[in-house]
Amino acid sequence: MQEKQRRYDIDWWRVIAILAVYLHHIGMPFNGDDFHIMNAESSKILDDIMVFFEQLRLPLLFLISGVGTMYAFSKRTWVQFLKERSYRLLIPLVFGVFVIVPPQTYFEHIDIYESYGQFYSHILSNIEVNHLWFIENLFYISVLSIPFILFLRSSRSTKIKRFIEKNSRKRYGILIWLVPLIVIKVISKIYFPDDSGSFENLSSTLFYGFFFVSGILMAASPILWDHLKTYRRANLYNAIIAILCFYGYYYLPRDIASAYLNIGTRWAIWHSVTSWVSWSCIIVLLGYGQIWFNKPSKILSKANEAIYPFYVLHQTVIIIMAYYIVQLDLSIGVKIVLLLVSTFPLTLILYRFLVYPFKLTRILFGMKSK
Questions:
Q1: Using N-to-C axis directions, what is the helix angle for 44-53 and 232-250, rounded to 10°?
Q2: Please, which residues have CB within 8 angstroms of residue 37's CB and are 6 or more apart in sequence?
Q3: Which ranges in the chain belong to alpha helices (H)?
Q4: d(CA 198, CA 137)
Q5: Cβ(303)–Cβ(18) under 8 Å?
Q6: Is 265 a member of any domain?
Q7: What is the C-alpha separation between 158 and 161, in angstroms, rounded?
Q8: Are 132 and 312 in contact (CB under 8 A)?
Q9: Which residues does 318 contact at the CB level (< 8 Å), separation at least 6?
């Protein structure tokens, strides 16, 4: 976008969303889930907190990516856009798969290898995408969205955009978008119950794709942004109710639910409630963000440039440091603090001295030229 059109609140939410992913990965060794490096003990309280933020961080990131995709397309032809997406996404993905991700796999299975060199000699049989699945999915979804964006830019989309704007104009009109979201998640989970982020797993691809497309629609219609700002307080009340229902159902004793509902119905309710929380909280953030964040900042300028390489690097740094930290005879809280205070500055140092100054590394990490 041209500077006069720039949405600084969107830039801030991009930075915040990726930092939320970073904090999520900081907690993963300690919440009892199956992460690459796991602590001997886990925290149920930490898991209960993280399960809520799981409903926000990636949907928000995909929606922001949809907005950014629409803006990037606004000053390019579809061919130029495809080249730009390949440059910004495919190059870091390939580089990451062969350079950034392998240390994660090595430290996860370190006991079966004599050295990293021995492990890397078999890299073709150990290729993993890991946290870079987001970049992979974003590339595929961006390419598939090209016909839809071209349609929105044409006069043929006028009636559809007016219909969406009209139905979103009411106080709770934006909640109508929840209907297709819930339908998509409930039905797709029946056939693709896995939580994998793989593009072939349609339950996650369609779910995150909905937020991506929503970002495209919002970028195509300034009126929708105005509605989010105008009705931000009403949306906040709705989000509070959604959160209460989320945790009410989350803590509902299993024997009580199973006495009245079969397993399929219980999962359908869970997917509906999580969709409600995801959409409700995100539209609140987008509404209040226009009040809090929509102004230029030197910190934002630097953070916005650094956040993509930070994302590519962060999980490898976390896994390497976690491998050593989980072996210490310390409490979970102290280990989390140690992991946080060691990995955050280390990731920034790697970015500042190995990525930022050099043309080649900037290309490999999807950065623009200096």
A1: 140
A2: 29, 107, 108, 319, 322, 323, 326
A3: 8-27, 44-53, 57-73, 78-85, 91-95, 102-108, 116-120, 133-144, 146-152, 158-167, 178-191, 202-220, 222-230, 232-250, 254-260, 263-292, 298-325, 332-350, 359-364
A4: 8
A5: no
A6: yes
A7: 5
A8: yes
A9: 22, 25, 26, 339, 343
Longest pairwise C-alpha distance within the chain: 65
What torsion, rounded to 10 degrees, do the Cα atoms 37, 41, 45, 47 define? 30
Query: To which residue do tokens 């989970």 refer?
Result: 189
Q: Quick one: pLDDT at residue 171? A: 83
Q: Is the pLDDT of residue 3 over 70?
A: no
Burial class of 231 by CB neighbour count within 10 A (0 to 12, 13 to 18, 19+): buried
> What kind and span of H or E run contains 128?
none
In a domain? residue 369: no
- Where on the phi/psi map is residue 124: left (φ > 0), alpha (ψ -120 to 50), or beta? alpha
Residue 102 CA to residue 109 CA, distance in Å, equals: 11
Q: Encode pLDDT of 302-338 as tens digits.
A: 999 999 999 999 999 999 999 999 999 999 999 999 9
- List the structure tokens of 231: 């009705």
Confidence check: pLDDT of 4 > 50: no
CA 1 – CA 215 distance, rounded (Å): 15
Q: What is the CA radius of gyration of the chain?
A: 21
Percent of the chain with pLDDT over 90: 77
The answer to whether residue 305 sits within a structural domain is yes
Cα 141 to Cα 88, 97, 138, 194, 304: the distances in Å are 14, 19, 5, 19, 22
Asked if residue 338 belongs to a domain, the reply is: yes
Q: Are 197 and 133 in contact (CB under 8 A)?
A: yes
Look at residue 5 in the predicted model and tell me its pLDDT: 65
Enclosing domain of residue 186: 3-364
Number of domains in the chain: 1
From residue 323, alpha-carbon distances to 41, 118, 156 in Å are 14, 19, 55
Residue 283: closest CA among 217, 349, 331: 217
* Residue 169, C-beta contacts closer than 8 angstroms, at least 6 positions apart: 223, 227
For range 187-200, the mean pLDDT: 91
**First and final C-alpha spacing in the chain:** 18
pLDDT digits (tens, 9 = 90+) for 335-352: 999 999 999 999 999 999
